[in-house]
Structure formats: structure tokens, C-alpha cells
């Protein structure tokens, strides 16, 4: 009886995303402070600490730090601290598209 | 009355827009969320801060602490009221069941303790016989 009540309140200690499907795949990770990196996910834990192999940091434009430019620097094998991670997405399947919103924002 | 997270939980499988503190926006269907507002979106369109670049991605995981706000379809707001009522009714039923079981369990427990005392004495005697 008690277990049912806990389930409705989500007693899960697991993460809501299953990172195992990203293992050995390229992922794009964004960090607090605006840094971005891509790398092959080699490992992870519940706290979202990640091990990325062959990691590449995508540097920001010198003129406009809010824009991610073309420059990169190689980081190699890294551990990314989960506390600083803001976004995780698979790098495969990510494609640039033209404006999908028909209405002009401006 | 935990309205914000209940609203989010109710909005699962619905499309929504998420704006992060860094100004980027993600449009996608909510796959799951947790108590820290971390969210997992599916079929996502990412719009850069300057509104110039757009990317399509199959899914993203976003840390709750980095969310500025979420835009949710109005239809979900109506659904929340019903769900909250149902959850309260369910909890009431659970409380009722708990009370009746608690009374019966207390009486059974007392009876069990007295039995254990008697059996303990009996097993001690048997043990002595085995050693001899």
C-alpha cells in the first residue's frame, strides 16, 4: 500500500533520461556559463557527471560571446561535472533548418 | 498545493516551449520531468538566442535550474484541476485503508509477542536435549 503511494509521488531515484542509449554516441553538452562541447559519451552517473571521449569545445565568437562560432579546441578525454551541465542532446540527428515558425517574430 | 510541478507533470506528452536563462528556446513534447524540474523533450526545435538559427533534434535533456520559463498549451491547465482532485481522492482512500489495517495489525502484534516468549523457552529445552 505504501509503495503505491510512493509511486504516485515518484519515489524513483533514477534519472528521467536514460543515458545508456547515448553510450558510444556523439552528444552535445552545454554548460553553465555558456560553454559548449561535443564528444562521445563513454560513461555517466546519476548526478549527470559525464565522461566524454575526443571532446571538442566549440568556442564563442570573439565579438559576440553569446554566439557560438566556428572555432574549436580539442579537449580529449574529459569528465564533465554534472552540476555545471545545463543541456544534453544527441549530436546525431541534429540538423539545421530554416525558420520553422511561419509568423515573423519581429 | 504544489501547482507548478503538478501542472508540469500533467503536461506530459504535450508540446511546450522552454526558454532557458541563456535565452535559447526549445520547442518539443514533454517526455518526462522530475521534482527538480529537469525535463526531457522529444522532437525538439531549438532556436538560438538571436532567433536566427534553428536546429531540429530528436530529444534533449534540460536541467531544471537553467529554465527561465515554460509555455504550456491552455488545454493542459484545465486537465490539472481534474488530476489534482483525483489525486486527493486517491490519497483519502489510502488513508482510510491504512487506519483499518493499523488497528488490526496492532492487536495481532501483541498476540505474537506472547507466543514468541513461550516458544523461546521450549526451544531452549530442546537444545539441551540435543547436546546431551
TrEMBL record, chain A:
GO cellular component: catalytic step 2 spliceosome; cytoplasm; Lsm1-7-Pat1 complex; spliceosomal tri-snRNP complex; U12-type spliceosomal complex; U2-type prespliceosome; U6 snRNP
GO molecular function: RNA binding
One Pfam family matching this protein: LSM
GO terms of biological process kind: mRNA splicing, via spliceosome; nuclear-transcribed mRNA catabolic process
Compartments where located: Nucleus
Coiled-coil segments: none
Domain of life: Eukaryota
Alphabetical keyword list: Acetylation, mRNA processing, mRNA splicing, Nucleus, Ribonucleoprotein, RNA-binding, Spliceosome
All residue ranges annotated as the Sm domain in the record: 14-94
Entry-linked InterPro entries: Lsm7, Lsm7/SmG-like, LSM_dom_sf, Sm, Sm_dom_euk/arc
Family the UniProt entry places it in: Belongs to the snRNP Sm proteins family.
Classification via PANTHER family: SMALL NUCLEAR RIBONUCLEOPROTEIN (PTHR10553), U6 SNRNA-ASSOCIATED SM-LIKE PROTEIN LSM7 (PTHR10553:SF5)
Subunit structure as annotated in this protein's UniProt entry: Component of the precatalytic spliceosome (spliceosome B complex). Component of the U4/U6-U5 tri-snRNP complex, a building block of the precatalytic spliceosome (spliceosome B complex). The U4/U6-U5 tri-snRNP complex is composed of the U4, U6 and U5 snRNAs and at least PRPF3, PRPF4, PRPF6, PRPF8, PRPF31, SNRNP200, TXNL4A, SNRNP40, SNRPB, SNRPD1, SNRPD2, SNRPD3, SNRPE, SNRPF, SNRPG, DDX23, CD2BP2, PPIH, SNU13, EFTUD2, SART1 and USP39, plus LSM2, LSM3, LSM4, LSM5, LSM6, LSM7 and LSM8.
Protein name, UniProt field: U6 snRNA-associated Sm-like protein LSm7
Annotated organism of origin: Pristionchus entomophagus
TrEMBL record, chain B:
GO CC aspect terms: cytoplasm; spliceosomal complex
Domain Sm: 3-76
A molecular function (GO) term: RNA binding
Record's compositionally biased regions (Gly residues): 101-132
UniProt xrefs under Pfam families: LSM
Bias-annotated ranges (Basic residues): 89-99
An individual GO BP term: nuclear-transcribed mRNA catabolic process
Subcellular location: Nucleus
Region of interest (Disordered), ranges: 87-132
Main location (coarse class): nucleus
Keywords on record: mRNA processing, mRNA splicing, Nucleus, Ribonucleoprotein, RNA-binding, Spliceosome
CDD domains on file: LSm4
InterPro entries: Lsm4, LSm4/Sm_D1/D3, LSM_dom_sf, Sm, Sm_dom_euk/arc
Function recorded in the entry: Binds specifically to the 3'-terminal U-tract of U6 snRNA.
Oligomer status and interactors: LSm subunits form a heteromer with a doughnut shape.
The family this protein is said to belong to: Belongs to the snRNP Sm proteins family.
Name by which UniProt lists this protein: U6 snRNA-associated Sm-like protein LSm4
Lineage of source species: Eukaryota, Metazoa, Ecdysozoa, Nematoda, Chromadorea
Gene: LSM4
Amino acid at each position: 500500500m505504501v509503495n503505491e503511494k510512493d509511486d504516485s509521488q515518484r519515489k524513483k531515484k533514477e534519472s528521467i533520461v536514460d543515458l545508456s542509449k547515448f553510450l558510444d554516441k556523439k552528444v552535445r553538452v552545454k554548460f553553465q556559463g555558456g560553454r559548449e562541447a561535443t564528444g562521445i559519451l563513454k560513461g555517466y552517473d546519476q548526478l549527470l557527471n559525464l565522461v566524454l571521449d575526443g571532446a571538442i569545445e566549440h568556442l564563442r565568437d570573439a565579438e559576440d560571446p553569446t554566439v557560438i562560432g566556428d572555432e574549436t579546441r580539442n579537449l580529449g578525454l574529459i569528465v564533465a561535472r554534472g552540476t555545471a551541465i545545463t543541456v544534453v542532446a544527441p549530436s546525431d540527428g541534429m540538423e539545421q533548418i530554416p525558420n520553422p515558425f511561419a509568423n515573423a517574430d519581429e | 498545493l504544489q501547482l507548478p510541478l503538478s501542472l508540469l507533470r500533467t503536461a506530459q506528452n504535450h508540446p511546450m516551449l522552454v526558454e532557458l536563462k541563456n535565452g535559447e528556446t526549445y520547442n518539443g513534447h514533454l517526455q518526462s520531468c522530475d521534482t527538480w524540474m529537469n525535463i526531457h523533450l522529444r522532437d525538439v526545435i531549438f532556436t538560438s538566442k538571436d532567433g536566427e538559427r534553428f536546429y531540429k533534434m530528436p530529444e534533449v535533456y534540460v536541467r531544471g535550474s537553467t529554465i527561465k520559463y515554460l509555455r504550456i498549451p491552455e488545454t493542459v491547465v484545465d486537465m490539472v484541476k481534474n488530476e489534482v482532485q483525483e489525486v486527493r481522492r486517491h490519497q483519502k482512500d489510502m488513508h482510510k485503508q491504512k487506519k483499518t489495517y493499523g488497528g488490526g495489525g496492532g492487536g495481532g502484534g501483541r498476540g505474537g509477542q506472547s507466543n514468541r516468549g513461550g516458544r523461546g523457552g521450549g526451544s531452549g529445552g530442546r537444545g539441551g536435549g540435543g547436546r546431551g
